[in-house]
Amino acid sequence: MMKCVTRTVTVRTTRGPQFVDITDQVAAVAREASLRTGFAIVFSRHTTAAIRINENEPMLIRDMEQF
Q1: Upper half-sphere CA count for residue 59 (Cβ side, 13 Å)
Q2: What does the DSSP 8-state code read for residue 31?
Q3: How many other β-carbons are positioned within 10 Å of the β-carbon of residue 35?
Q4: Gap between the Cα atoms of 44 and 7, Å rounded
């Protein structure tokens, strides 16, 4: 049987563009739901926000903000 869990995580930013690492929040949701295998679907309901998967490397983040 497949288990489905839905959670809302609110992220506030102070400037644009701003990159926020939400890895810990997503992992916490999986732990709290006792999920051991499967996948997470992460999306934004806001039109000016985006989900991007990348290394959390400070120089890379700085470059992306400047781009």
Answers
A1: 0
A2: H
A3: 14
A4: 12
Residue 33 token pair: 């739901």
What pLDDT digit, counting tens, does each position of 5-46 carry? Answer: 899 988 888 988 888 999 999 999 999 999 888 888 999 888
Residues 30, 42 contacting (CB under 8 angstroms): no
For residues 32 and 30, what is the distance between their CA atoms, to the nearest angstrom?
Answer: 6
How far apart CA 56 and CA 35 sit, in angstroms, is 24
pTM: 0.74
Phi-psi region of 26 (alpha: psi -120 to 50; beta: other; left: phi over 0): alpha
Neighbours of 16 (CB within 10 A): 8
Sequence-separated (6 or more) residues with CB below 8 Å from residue 51 = 42, 43, 44
How far from the centroid of its chain's Cα atoms is residue 6's Cα? 14
